[in-house]
Write a structure and sequence with these properties.
Strand order of the largest sheet: 1-5-6-4
Number of strands: 6
Order of helices and strands: EEEEHEEHHHH
Number of domains: 2
Radius of gyration: 18 Å
Distance between the termini: 54 Å
Low-confidence stretches: none
Structural class: alpha+beta
Number of helices: 5
Shape: elongated
Mean pLDDT: 79
Strand content: 15-25%
Largest sheet: 4 strands, antiparallel
Length: 166
């Protein structure tokens, strides 16, 4: 088994809950276990641009479908060459529309971190500290996203308390 990495998946409405226990895939176009054999691991991509390209060829999901960004362990490859992964932790979810907006640019991960920090009101010194993570180490990339998300949630809670007090 390989080390945990970061993966991207559209998790369709009507599918069983996203979890390690439910992490199975079938060939594209098969909608029941009777038609195709199930394989262990969710079909997903290790890079957001690969997920975008995959659905550009297949037809895009509805804007409100859920994209799950998660860490996990690759167990195999699917029929389209995609990774089959058993998840260990959900890092973030967003709609397909949000995913396209965030990842269709040519923005680097470092630039994405800095932009997200600005959007959340994180000062540039703190943003610099977050960017100093070894961004080639996926575990640190997951930690950086988790830290930014936690900071944004805390900052929004502070703003809401300040607004409520006024």
């Amino acid at each position: 088994m390989e080390t945990a990495e970061l993966y991207y998946r559209v998790h369709w409405k009507g599918c069983p809950a996203f979890s390690a226990e439910n992490a199975y895939s079938v060939q594209w176009g098969c909608w029941s276990d009777d038609e195709c054999s199930r394989r262990r691991g969710y079909s997903c991509c290790s890079d957001p641009s690969l997920l975008l390209k995959y659905f550009e060829r297949r037809g895009e999901p509805a804007d409100d479908e859920t994209v799950v960004i998660f860490s996990g362990h690759r167990v195999d490859h699917g029929d389209d060459g995609e990774d089959l992964v058993v998840p260990s932790e959900v890092v973030m979810t967003m709609t397909w529309s949000e995913f396209k907006t965030r990842f269709r640019s040519s923005e680097s991960f470092e630039d994405t971190v800095r932009r997200t920090c600005r959007e959340c009101g994180i000062d540039s010194e703190t943003a610099d500290l977050i960017v100093q993570y070894d961004l080639n180490d996926v575990a640190n990339r997951v930690a950086a996203i988790r830290d930014m998300t936690a900071f944004c949630v805390a900052r929004n809670a502070e703003w809401n308390e300040e607004t409520d007090a006024e």
